[in-house]
């Protein structure tokens, strides 16, 4: 049985059967991977604590004929989120990555973007409006579209173009700190959400309605 090692971000976990879990990860060297961890749903599992969603982990994966198996997983550092809003932000982004990226696609820029999203999620202000959360998610999605080859042609008013150029070229932290009117944030986010429909999303993208429903 062949083994491969990687440093990965845990995107999703799903319980299968009674005590096993299926994990979706994105690795720096091997890209998107789905692997089964036997017994990780048991209360005393040593692996489970290292494989919480959004964790950065060093893994060893055994390649199987039909299913890959997680042989070893070790969290590289403690990762904690303060509050519901950053969890919603990073959770929705990881879900988007799972829906847009196919297994075997390897791009170190995507791993770096996931690390940037993790960092931003730990820098949220105490109160983050639904408009700011929507805009921040749109900014991360915009960077993802660029990496995956769906980069849209920029169009809009002068102010909208300035913000779109900032989202494309500046660190994501700048989107968290940007000071401007809410209407501009909404227009830019709406434009990016529209561009998401040009991809092969398997479900409708809920955008503003989703964030507003959770934060009201």
Written overview of the protein:
By secondary structure, the protein is of the alpha+beta class. It has 2 domains: 3-75, Beta Barrel (OB fold (Dihydrolipoamide Acetyltransferase, E2P)); 84-215, no CATH class. The protein is built from 7 helices and 5 strands, in the order βββββααααααα. It has helices at residues 84-100, 108-121, 130-148, 158-169, 172-177, 182-196, 207-215, and strands at residues 3-16, 20-27, 31-37, 56-62, 68-75. The protein has a 5-stranded mixed β-barrel with strand order 1-2-3-5-4. β4 and β5 form a beta hairpin. α1 packs parallel to α3, α3 packs antiparallel against α7 (207-215) and α4 packs across α6 (182-196). The longest helix has 19 residues, at 130-148. It starts with a strand and ends with a helix. The model has no long low-confidence stretch (mean pLDDT 88).
Number of structural units classed as domains: 2
**Total of DSSP H or I helical runs spanning 4+ residues:** 7
Major sheet description: 5 strands, mixed, barrel
Radius of gyration: 18 Å
């Amino acid at each position: 049985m062949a083994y491969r090692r990687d440093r990965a971000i845990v995107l999703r976990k799903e319980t299968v059967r009674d005590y096993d879990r299926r994990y979706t990860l994105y690795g720096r060297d091997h890209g998107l991977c789905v692997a089964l961890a036997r017994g990780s749903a048991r209360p005393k599992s040593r692996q489970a604590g290292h494989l919480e969603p959004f964790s950065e982990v060093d893994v060893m994966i055994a390649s199987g004929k039909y299913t890959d198996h997680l042989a070893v997983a070790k969290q590289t550092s403690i990762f904690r989120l303060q509050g519901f809003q950053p969890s919603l932000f990073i959770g929705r982004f990881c879900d988007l990555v799972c829906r847009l990226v196919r297994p075997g696609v390897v791009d170190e820029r995507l791993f770096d973007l996931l690390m940037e999203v993790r960092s931003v999620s730990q820098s949220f202000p105490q109160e983050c409006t639904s408009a700011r959360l929507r805009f921040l998610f749109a900014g991360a999605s915009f960077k993802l579209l660029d990496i995956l080859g769906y980069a849209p042609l920029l169009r809009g008013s002068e102010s909208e173009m300035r913000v779109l150029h900032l989202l494309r070229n500046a660190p994501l932290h700048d989107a968290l700190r940007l000071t401007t009117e809410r209407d501009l944030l909404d227009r830019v986010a709406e434009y990016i959400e529209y561009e998401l429909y040009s991809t092969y999303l398997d479900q409708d993208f809920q955008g503003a309605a989703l964030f507003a429903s959770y934060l009201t």
